[in-house]
């Protein structure tokens, strides 16, 4: 079962974290848990989004990008490589 944590702390909030969590809540399938999170320790790169249990991180997520994450990652199980947080998901090439 997937859980998506969306940082709602100061720096991410300034970047629109409330709209990002709202988009996940309206678009994600019912079986996915959507959770607000306190600071994820990556301030300045927000809005930070963490998908559990696989620990997949997305940075600088904008509300208009949430639909793609929902369709491709949460529904089809294919994380969107181009949007991943490079600090924790360095490119393999
Ligand atoms: S405020 Fe979002 S990672 Fe720190």
From TrEMBL:
Pfam families: 2Fe-2S_thioredx (PF01257). Signal peptide: none annotated. Gene3D superfamilies: Glutaredoxin (3.40.30.10). It comes from Leptolyngbya boryana NIES-2135. CDD domains: TRX_Fd_family. It comes from the Bacteria. InterPro entries: Thioredoxin-like_sf. This is 2Fe-2S ferredoxin.
């Amino acid at each position: 079962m997937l859980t998506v944590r969306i940082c709602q702390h100061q720096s991410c909030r300034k970047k629109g974290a409330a709209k990002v969590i709202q988009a996940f809540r309206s678009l994600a399938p019912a079986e996915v848990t959507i959770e607000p999170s306190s600071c994820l320790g990556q301030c300045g790169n927000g809005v930070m989004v963490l998908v559990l249990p696989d620990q997949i991180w997305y940075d600088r997520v904008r509300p208009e990008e949430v639909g793609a994450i929902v369709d491709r990652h949460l529904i089809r199980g294919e994380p969107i490589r181009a949007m991943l947080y490079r600090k924790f998901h360095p490119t393999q090439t």
